[in-house]
Design a protein that fits this description.
single chain; 332 residues; alpha/beta; TIM Barrel; eight-stranded parallel barrel; 12 helices; 9 strands
Length: 332
Amino acid sequence: MSRLADIPLSVLDLAPITRDGTASETFRCSVDLAQQTERLGYNRYWLAEHHNIDGIASAATSVLIGHIAGATSALRVGSGGIMLPNHPPLAIAEQFGTLATLYPDRIDLGLGRAPGSDGITMQAMRRDPRAGVNDFPDRLEELRRYLGDSVPGQRVRAIPGEGTHVPIWLLGSSGYSAQLAARLGLPFAFAGQFAPGYMVEALHLYREGFQPGVLDKPHAMIGIPLIAADTDERARFLATTQQQKFLNLIRGKSTRTQPPVETLDWSPQERAMVSQNLGAAVVGNAESVRQQLDDLLEQTGADEIMVNTDCYDHADRVKSYEILADVQRAAR
């Protein structure tokens, strides 16, 4: 039996704003996607922190997580991720402690080190340019203390937050977070949706160095881009939307979601760069998606898959998740 039969499938929503759309429309689509994927049996629904990017509406990540959790009933909702060096650990503990109190046993806290923005935005956020380079383990430990049980003499407490033990994941696209997650016995999620080049190596480092801690054994999730449609041709056509997004990012243009196109006007160098970003992308009809996912699971040994589906039309996006759910059911 295919490993795909039993592996948890989850959703990464980058809260995309379309070319002519609004953040309000994005939020309505996110709620609908969360409700639809919950119905389909998906495991988690994560949102990511980004700032000053005109095509992404999830800057106030914890607020949007609460909105999605309030519109669903069983889906685990969380961050993929919160960029911890952007915030005081106490503030994150209070935010996610509040979410965990409102929605018990449904909130995940995925953490990353990157700014989620450019240099000017980092200054506007008052982020120390050196943050996350050497002090990330200390910030993480402080956050874990706030979310853990109180200890005698503790003068600073997260209320709410204290005693909630919100599950923490470390996110990354290199070996750093993989090795830190291994040392602390935490689950690890690799950001293959935009930087898959180091995926196999990072997962190897994580498993090789794992020491029991929060978990008794390693648990690795991979994020990937995935577009499923009725035919391979249709899926490849829809996938030009995500290709345009990375191409515009390379060119310093708007990252708003663009309609799919028949052909792309790009240089060989640009095409190679986009292909590198989307190196883990799964694109095709149901059978093609099944084969590609089987190969990916064989290559990575992942324990979970988190899918980011970037389509211009919301109906195409929902249908892609429906096809993937059908593919998994057929594998059982």
